[in-house]
# Entry
Amino acid sequence: MLNMEPPDGESGGGSVASSCVSVRIVRTEEQTSLMMQRFTAYVIEVNDFGRCSEASHRYGDFETLHKALLTECPGLHLPPMPPKGVDGTDVAVVATRKVELEKLMRAMLGSPEVLMEKQLHLWKFLNLSNPTVIASRFVCVPRSRGNTLRTLAKLVEPKYKDDVYRLGHPAVLDLLMEGLRELRGGGMDSGHWSQQSESRVAICKLLSGALGGSDEARARLIQADVIAQLLGLVERDEFALDDARIALNVIVAREAEKLDTILAGFLRRGGLSQLAVLATRAKCQEFVAKLLWLAWDAPVRAPFAQPGGQGLRILQALLKSPMPTCSLLGAVLLAGLIASGDFDAEPAHRSEALRLVRSVLQDTQAATDPQFSKTLCGANSSLVRLAGLLDDADLAPLVLGLLCAAKPQPAKLSRIAGNLASIVGDKGGLIHNEETRARAAELLLHIQGTGASAPSTGPGMSSTTSAGASAGGMELQQCEGIAAHEESLDTALRTQLEEGVARSQQALQLRGEGVREASATARHRLQPLPTLDFQAFDKSFSSFKIARESWEKILRESEILHHDMESQLLDLRAARPSSVDPHLYKERLLSAERIYAEVKSQREALAVADADAREKQTRAEASSAHYRRAADDVKRLEEEIGSLRIQKTEKETQATKLRHKANTPSLDQMKQQAAAAIERSLAQARELQTIGQRVQQGDPDHLREGESRDQKIAEITRKLAEMKTQHQRLVQQQKDLDFDPRELNDQASRIEAEASDLASRADSLELRRMEADRERSDKIGSSTRDSQDARYAQDQRSSLAAQLSTTESEAKRQLSALQPLIQEHHAGWQRLLAQQKKLDADQHVLTGKVDEMARSAETENIMRSSLVEQVDHLMGDLQRLRSFLSEVGSSPLPVVRPSAAPSGSAAAPNDLFGSAPAAAPAAAPAAAPDDLFGSTTPDVFDDGPLLAGSPLAPSPAVATTVRPSMPAGLLQEEDPIPSLSPSAHAAETNHIVQTTSPSALNAASVPAPAPLDDDDFDAFLREDNSAVSLSGAATAASPTTAPADEL
# Structure
């Protein structure tokens, strides 16, 4: 990835498009230093991940870099620097250096040691920043990727916005996708650089930076199926959703116009199965719903419109999501399929889908979440889809109800103001009912309240001008039909207001009679109660209980302590220190003493053998040293003899060469020829210099056809260099011929004499060597005998040591086996002594317990007498309270009934306190519409019906009015009063039965309806079956009985 571009005329290397960092010397410049010396600067073009810059350096800078790298990286192999010591501005030298320096740079950039070098010599030389260093190391040095990954992730920070382009390079993108695939399918034990802590976060951040950096990088990643890989992370670990969302959000934001095409391609390549898995996880359901809604156009909807297919199963999981906002988005997605006509071919499927949408969108409480509102209407494409939903008469009231609850930003909502105005202007209810028009009018008022004006309508939106636009922003042509539109708006809002007021008035009448009856009864029965002083009784009773508990506790502790002491006495009488037989224990101790005596004897024998072995070893070492010295003397003499003989041979050879040289034939003629050759060489050099000067002055006579002046100068320079080398060779040859034959013969005679002297010295040393060799032979025999004695002594010592080791091991084994018995014996005696001491201490404790029991008995007697007095006082007070309660309950007040409800109003309110059952209405209500949730229409999802049938509402004939039961426990506290006689108690009970109506008893036995679980989708729809229709009309069910705790 990191390489050099080849120089002109060479092949190899990569192009700029395929390399991360590349360099090449594009030109040279002749410059002048501060000391007014001319030098050549080599201009380097640096390609930094696609962006080019230049760096200029002279030869000395390259040399300094070369030395620094070799110093910082021992063992580094780099090409040598071009030769120094010639003219650095010479054209031929510059051309040669340019090629060599490029090769040197190529080697540096290809070395991992140079790239990882801590002082950053190469990077500073090329004027490259730290982001380039980190990115290059990440790409080109595999062993560093684990460490550089977290640092590279900092490029996505705002302060590095000018450096993030490096993440879009193909090499970086390929590595990021490799790491992403490894995170999805690899294991922690794979050893891959991506399988480290926090690598997942770093890779997702880097992908987000690459996706947002350039269109090319984003297209490359999308083509590499980055969406599937990111969702694969979430599929493997749902906690990766927050990390993957970072990168996916960039795709959604930057590819908003093509998001439907991108997501459709993802679904075709198996993405539908991935979404099916994610849709079953509560943490991922809302993300799946948002992703689908942002791209819910025809290409994406197609896989979801197949009855019984995997797409509809995904929508089913979203509808059943425990997150209310996710269920709402799932319903909107299903509504999109209905509005686009995907179910028109099968009316039963359309009806079933519409039923599901209606069941979810009837409860829009979760739509008040601002985040849901932003998701629903944040994008312009989302508003286009909502406008399409409003064109469907069945979906319009549901979608309008959702928008009324969500209350999107008026500026966004104003884009569909034309559609809302068309719904409001539907006079006579030809398409939409009054409730739908009222909700559309409410949204228009929401837009008008902020002064937002409707922009130009887009595809799929009505061109009708928004009536909610502010007056200051209206165009003149918008005044056409404004009166009729405002009239429709007022009518729709007035209808909604009147229906709301009627419902509130009906509910108030249903509850008014109960409130008045309860108030009258309360005023009679809630008279001030007689005073009951329970505090003194409670205090006395608590003191008595405490005294009893204290006495009982002390008694129980004393009995336990006494029983424990008896057990301890029995144990101590029959106790032994340990479970081992005393005779066996003593025998094992004596055996341990005997084996230790044997160990001591063997240790003494080993000490004697060890001293003898050391003495004999010392004697053997001394004999060996004498032998080595004798051998060294022989070796030294042999080396001296060999050296003298070599010198003698060299002297004889040198004398022979001198005599041969002195007898050289035609010596004078050879000297003359050498001098003549030197003169010719100098003349040719002077001639070439003259030609070079004329060529530099512009003389064209010496130029061949098509040859330039620089080429001619280069040729002359090359020839001069060759002639210079030839001249030096001729001068050396002349020096070799300059000698006197007589002097050489005399010198040869002297050398031969020296050789004869060396031969005599060698013979003398040979005699000394023979004598030393005889002495060495004598020493070797003595050394051998001493060595054998030392080995024998050492073997004997080793035998004794092995025997001692065996005996010691046996002794240690017996001691190890005996040690637990000894510890057990000692611990047993300690335990027995501790038990005896504890028994003495328990004697003192028991004495104290006996004294404390006597004191507790006296305290209990006093508290018991006090409690008897308090019970007598309390019984008198309770009798007075019973008489008061009988008096209050025997005089009920008459109940004032309100006037009858006018004809055509809602059913009479329930009697909360036991009035007669309400009469059946004079006229039967209108027939209820078909049950959308209990029909026999086959389910569009083929895995069984998603919803259970709802229970039928009670018929008007069995509707009854009940009163709430009395508060639990109110009469139960009065029953056990001991002052009441049996006859009085029976009378009171009879009175209660007579004043309690049968309806009240029924109400007490009828269980209250179970609370609705918002997370239970089926229960939610079953509850909605008995609800009021969207238009506000009452259903066929009569008023249900009020729960027992209604008041």
